[in-house]
Fold this protein.
Amino acid sequence: MGGDAPAAAVIERYGRWEWRCPQDLGGDNPCDPAQARLDVSLVAPSGRRFALPGFFDGQAFRARFTPGECGAWEYRAEAATPTRRAEWRGTFEVVPSTRRGFLRLGADGLRHETGEPFVAVGENLCWGRLPDYERWLGRLAAAGCGFARLWMAPWGFALEWTDTPPGDYRPRLQRAENLDRVFDLAEAHGIALQLCLLNHGQFSTRVNPDWDANPWNAARPGGFLQHPAEVFTDPRAQALLLRRLRYIVARWGYAPHLLAWELWNEVDLTDEYSSPAVAAWHGRVARALAALDPCGHLITTSYARPQGDAAVWALPELAFTQVHRYGFRDVPGQIAADLSRQRAFGKPALYGELGLDSGGADGTRDPAGRYIHQGAWAALLGGSLGTALPWWWDNYVDPLDLYARWSGVSAFARQVFAQHPPTAFAPLPLTCTAPGEEPGVLALLHPGGAAAAWIWDAAGAAPAAAPADRAVLGARLHLDALPPGPWRVSFWDTGTGQSWDAGGAAGGPGERLALPPLRGDLAVTLRR
């Protein structure tokens, strides 16, 4: 083996660099690095070095990367089999661009590498057909959204299932190519992604059970696990998972619009859940994943129980926590309580799943999508990483065309959090009163002199639609906890995201701000 295989000579900063191995490496299973592998090392203009794993796409081995420095880069690609080894070298130039780079979690929250805050406004889009993704992502982008959550589910983008021997992804490489296309579509629409690598049903006999079909199940040809819970302790399962992670990082780890790897969806629904075993597994796997990923994406996981597992959330390898909840009577109040509990873990939180019913779509109970609207505003002003992400994207949100439910909150987030992400703000304990009513309030305060509040009609907050003509009159926002002003006040229409100047206010004990008639809800911003 050997020769010359040039990649693109000039690419934009934060554009995708891709190198294709010019030789057929052979091997019975090119998805097994012990039989055939590609490794690429890069040297940035600053001298910083990066190590990339390669992946087999069904035709050839490739390597992908997104450079963040302008100037001349060097690369060295090494291909190896048990009997052969070859090397290629080359250079490429990176030129300036307007791209914003990777998403990083700093002391004040999520920001692009170029400094702009990122607010995760969007929904779950966990599986679907390519034409569906073209429509869904386009409609989300048109509503101002910039975030979606995906799964590598057996019926979707998973690399292994009943049609693959353990560790051989070739029968499913068309699915990997489809996921390539979804990543490209999301990037074109300006939508960041969170990719969930394992879902609970693969290792469950109780909840959404798919264990009988799992190729690692010893009851199937080539399987080796006697019980689902052994996935957390079995050495062969660990080795096969690391092989899969290497492939996943090699193929999709280049993406600057990938917010995070999510190790599990609702890991507590796997059989015989053991906190010590699951926590130890998360620590090992997260460290291995971080070592494989040259671009340093964030890592998280998720639970069906809203509180999760404190032993897992305490792991330093996990960047943020998640909340999943279904079955609400009071959407804003419950979200506020959930996020308040998450603060005990000392990490930002993402409200990763939201639904009125885990057993089916929400169209008959809430055809207007009021809970989507409430969940978005409650999670955002509750100080999370963004809005709550609703479930039932394919049989509720899309067929009922509920995308407008994000228009107002996305416009608000773009303007109010243009300088500082919501996690840079602290909870602000404001209250609201009205004759015979007690509206709910969620508020945030930034030390630089900015505050934001969302006030909702608590009596009309149930998912069933409130009377169209209901309005709470004479509401007053109590500003006792707001530092002394003067403050400039703006009111916001939460449906459209339009704002209007409301004059001035003074914060401190006894200070009150008169509100316009409260029809459902209202947002308020105050700036010094």
Remarks:
- The chain has nine helices and 26 strands.
- Residues 52 and 107 are 28 Å apart (CA to CA).
- The mean pLDDT is 95.
